[in-house]
């Protein structure tokens, strides 16, 4: 029985605001004893696209509630239900407990500079290291063993959940969402592309070897000039990297819980979104 529920949406999206308010009204009408609160909710109902869902995961990851997505965006691959005509029926199933929980792996990136940790970030989809306006030389190692050299725009480390997002756009492999692994995919590398799947209990290390320092990019929050950037998911913790920086990436103990209403939803999503037959 659900007792505490939170509704999350972005105020700059009229469709999300509309469905956020409709959902709140529906809950108050049908389940008046349910407390709508952002503190320690059992379920977070997200009205928005995949970007909003990723924001909700970051915001609520400490209480780790079940994430239930109503797609009001464009892709909606992470959403529990995508068609607006099905929203209220899906909410009924949610409150009746008629759903299964899919647990998705997160990864954590730690940036070390001159031997000191300067940053830590978590991602559900991917961590990317790239020079958007130039080239960067990177060394990739797995468990301390040199594995790959990249001379191009950069590299990303994605999860199975993120395999259908930026990783897919960069021609990385699609991986079943219940497989706990990391995917190494080059971004515009000047070598033969060799995306690789790494077991979940390994640690990936990426070292920034060299790049031309021009400072063509400025980070909005700080105004600091940048060339090579590291970011997680939807621009989370965007930070400039320097030569010699070492990024260590591994899985986190935390598994994010998503509500799924039907089996085979992943394959249905592939068919609907990518035209797979």
Automatic annotation (TrEMBL):
Protein's name in the database: NAD kinase
Keywords: ATP-binding, Cytoplasm, Kinase, NAD, NADP, Nucleotide-binding, Transferase
Sequence similarity: Belongs to the NAD kinase family.
GO cellular-component term (any): cytoplasm
Database matches in PANTHER family: NAD KINASE
Pfam families: NAD_kinase, NAD_kinase_C
Cofactor(s) needed for function: a divalent metal cation
InterPro entries the record matches: ATP-NAD_kinase_N, ATP-NAD_kinase_PpnK-typ_C, NAD/diacylglycerol_kinase_sf, NADK
Main location: cytoplasm
Catalytic activity reported: NAD(+) + ATP = ADP + NADP(+) + H(+)
Superkingdom to which the source organism belongs: Bacteria
Biological source species: Candidatus Giovannonibacteria bacterium GW2011_GWA2_44_13b
GO biological process, one term: NADP+ biosynthetic process
EC numbers, comma separated: 2.7.1.23
Active-site annotation: 50 (proton acceptor)
